[in-house]
């Protein structure tokens, strides 16, 4: 039996075991398989591990999307995880090229994926409070928001959770060094049903204020403010 002789349900099940590239390549072989690739039911879950993946055409965004994860790390470059004044030229160039990639993608999610249930972001240093605010407003069914090492996230995101996160049940802001203990306490007070986790966040040294820098004293691990 040829693969195209399978019914739609079987083909969808088969596609579900393939990664995004394999699905796209298979869809190129005939019109019937392209229709399966374009079926919204196939795209309820999306995982990304590189900024480049967000710009490919091997996936679909739509109302069927329920679970989204964007997580990446680099051994060569700690992307967006350290202040600009500490980055070498390669790091600065890398960050510049991907500065708006995740934010632009998430705004697209806001417009196309109103039924999103869970969002996980890790190492996405350019994601802003405003971006998360828009997601909370446009995805009212969001139940799980997990942010890790997103350095631009501040108490404004925590405030947005108290105002627009009616469906939220899980909130992680691990290693988000610019949230404060006061902000976390407000979430605990106003949203007692939310399971809040903030490992190594409010107790970490936040980004330096404009005009100031934090530097390591020579020969020690002590941070001094200039």
TrEMBL record:
GO terms for cellular component: cytoplasm. Gene3D superfamilies: Ribonuclease Inhibitor (3.80.10.10). Residues 9-46 form the F-box domain. It comes from the Eukaryota. InterPro entries: F-box-like_dom_sf (IPR036047), F-box_dom (IPR001810), F-box_LRR-repeat (IPR050648), Leu-rich_rpt_Cys-con_subtyp (IPR006553), LRR_dom_sf (IPR032675). The keyword Kinase does not apply. Keywords: Ubl conjugation pathway. This is FXL22 protein. It comes from Nesospiza acunhae. The lineage of its organism: Eukaryota, Metazoa, Chordata, Craniata, Vertebrata.
